[in-house]
Specification:
The chain is of the alpha+beta class. The chain folds into 2 domains: 245 residues, FAD/NAD(P)-binding domain (3-Layer(bba) Sandwich), CATH 3.50.50; 152 residues, no CATH class. Helices cover 33% and strands 26% of the residues. The chain has 14 helices and 18 strands. Strand 7 and strand 8 form a beta hairpin. Helix 1 runs parallel beside helix 6 and helix 1 packs parallel to helix 14. The radius of gyration is 25 Å and the shape is elongated. The structure holds flavin-adenine dinucleotide (FAD). Flavin-adenine dinucleotide (FAD) binds next to helix 1, helix 2 and helix 14.
């Protein structure tokens, strides 16, 4: 049997950094990856550009991770965003700051981040084996002795780090194996759910709206017809529903509401910059200036062309209607349509299409200042396998790097 000091399972963002840090301390480290090459998910992050971290301060970071954010305090204190930037700089990859505090590699190429992490692991003599799926642990008296691969090979070590990621984008290798492995050791798994995932709508006009992006709009999530959340920004229509930054942000909340059998709608305020009076004055002005022309023509001054047809149908405006014939009641309809264009949400897209998995190993069973299991004396966790999930903007990768760095120190 092959024996080393440390085995890291999963060569993703968190596993690569954990393996390199463990090796820097003089340990012999074996990093085992299921796929044919390391960090496939990392190579597609940020639409291929990899949003490595965010410039937010530690308090904002923790807030972004919601109720479980506090768990990350020790990891972030130990290795944070400036450390991430320096880490990659030292490996020859400079990063640049973009709007929203988001950092990307100067090259706009996620592969540079992947290659830097592999270089870091290899420079520190980590042995990486690919095409090797861990299927089992051999455990005695609350201590792991060895791991078993799908091909039957076994490897033993003093310490183990489980970094198998979440359950989304399974083609990248993250198929939730780590949950089963941890469960077999007695760990509790908080039910994995999709987060940062597109929404499915039953709206009949989606085909017409497909690919339309709306910027500078406000959305409200309506839970049983009452406003649950309001956000300002950008959305995009798809053939099946809605996506884009605002939608991804509210998606895990919507997943929970739908699980509770609540009725959910997204209401879009298409003119959030105008108050009610300004909006009504604007509609009156446009109606007056278009006079005997069809309302459809007037709407071109208020809306992107692609949305006009669905807008008219939703608000019962006929093609034959002309601006000068619009009475107060009809004008109110146009006003309401611009303020509150509704889309019924019936589900989220499946977890396979989620950017991140919500849920994972229960944090109650992990020491936050070491990432060590409270149940198994030589096991550590890092990355998305943990029950933490943040919004888009580089927060999730920073959590993977920070928890990976801490787990790799093998404290405790
Ligand atoms: C499309 C997309 C875009 C994203 N963009 C961003 C972004 O720009 N910024 C950001 O902060 N976050 C982004 N994320 C989230 C980010 O990619 C993850 O949070 C991060 O990759 C988690 O790192 P990890 O190491 O925990 O898991 P992963 O990166 O998923 O790595 C886990 C590794 O473990 C391996 N593995 C699994 N099971 C086994 C097994 N049984 N045996 C051996 N190996 C195994 C997998 O093959 C995989 O290589 C994005 C996610 C997606 C899907």
């Amino acid at each position: 049997m092959n024996s080393v000091d440390v085995i890291v399972i999963g060569a993703g963002a968190s596993g690569l950094i954990a393996a390199g840090i463990a090796a820097q301390q003089g340990k012999s480290v074996l990093l085992i990856e299921k796929k044919t090459r390391p960090a496939i998910k990392l190579s597609i992050t940020g639409k291929g550009r990899c949003n490595v971290t965010n410039s937010a301060d530690i308090h904002e970071f923790i807030e972004k991770f919601g109720n479980n954010g506090k768990f990350l305090y020790s990891s972030f204190s130990n290795f944070f965003n400036a450390d991430t930037i320096n880490f990659f700089e030292e490996l020859g990859v400079s990063c640049k700051l973009e709007r929203g505090g988001r950092y990307f590699p100067e090259s706009n190429d996620a592969h540079d981040i992947v290659n830097a992490l592999i270089k870091f692991a290899k420079n520190n003599n980590v042995k990486i084996i690919t095409n090797s799926e861990v299927v089992n642990f051999v455990c005695e008296n609350k201590k792991i002795k060895s791991i078993v691969l799908k091909n039957g090979n076994t490897y033993s070590a003093e310490k183990f780090i489980l970094a198998t990621g979440g359950k989304s984008y399974p083609l990248t290798g993250s198929t939730g194996d780590g949950y089963k492995l941890a469960k077999s050791l007695g760990h509790t798994i908080i039910k994995p759910q999709p987060a940062l995932v597109p929404l499915v709508s039953s709206d009949e006009y989606l085909k017409q709206l497909n690919k339309l992006k709306l910027k500078n709009i406000e959305i409200s999530v309506l839970e049983d017809n009452k406003i649950a959340t309001k956000l300002f920004g950008e959305i995009e229509f798809t053939i099946f529903g809605l996506t884009g930054p605002l939608i991804l942000t509210v998606s895990s909340k919507i997943f929970s509401l739908l699980e509770e059998k609540k009725s959910v709608e997204i209401s879009i305020n298409l003119k959030p910059a105008l108050d009610d009076k300004q909006l009504d004055d604007r509609i009156i002005r446009e109606l007056n200036s278009f006079g005997s022309m069809p309302v459809r023509n007037m709407l071109k001054t208020l809306l992107p062309i692609q949305i006009i047809e669905p807008f008219m149908k939703k608000n019962n405006i006929k093609h034959t209607e002309i601006c000068s014939a619009i009475n107060k009641e009809k004008r109110k309809k146009i006003f309401d349509g611009l303020r509150n264009m509704r889309f019924k949400i019936v589900s989220t897209r499946p977890i396979d299409e989620a950017i991140i998995t919500k849920g994972g190993i229960s944090l109650k069973e992990i020491e936050q200042n070491t990432m060590k299991s409270k149940l198994i004396e030589n096991l550590y966790f890092c990355g998305e396998i943990l029950d933490v999930d943040g919004p888009t903007g580089g927060f999730n990768l920073q959590a993977a790097f920070s928890t990976g760095y801490l787990a790799g120190q093998l404290k405790g």
